[in-house]
Design a protein that fits this description.
By secondary structure, the protein is α/β, with parallel strands linked by helices. It has a single domain (3-80), classed as Rossmann fold (3-Layer(aba) Sandwich), CATH 3.40.50.10580. The chain has 5 helices and 4 strands. A 4-stranded parallel sheet has the order 2-1-3-4. The longest helix is centred in the C-terminal third of the chain and has 14 residues, at 84-97. The protein is globular and about 35 Å long. The termini are far apart.
Amino acid sequence: MYKIAVMGDKDSILGFAALGMEIYPQQDAAEAAKKLRRLSKGGYAVIYITEALAAQIRDEIDRYQDAVAPAVVLIPGIAGNTGMGMKNVGRVVEKAVGTDILSDNQGEKRI
C-alpha cells in the first residue's frame, strides 16, 4: 500500500496527521532535500510540500517532475498562498495536454 507524506513547517502540516498522513516537520533546506530523497525511495505515492519549503529545495523537487511516483504536490503553508503551487499545476497540465488550458486569454488562471 502506498503512503502519503507531508513536509513543511510544523504549524502548517500538523493537521494532516489527523487525516492519517505522515508528517515530517522541516526547517532546514539541506535536511529537507535529504528527507525528500529518503521518502521518494520509501514507498510514498504522494509527497505534499509547503510552498515556502519547496522554494528552498526547488532543484531537488525538479528531480521528481517526470517521475510516476512520488507525485510531489505543493501546498500553501500557514503563512498563505504564494501561487507557486498553481504555477506547478499549470506546468504539469500544459505538458500533459500540450497547451495551457487553465488560463484565460489575458494569462489569468481560471481556477
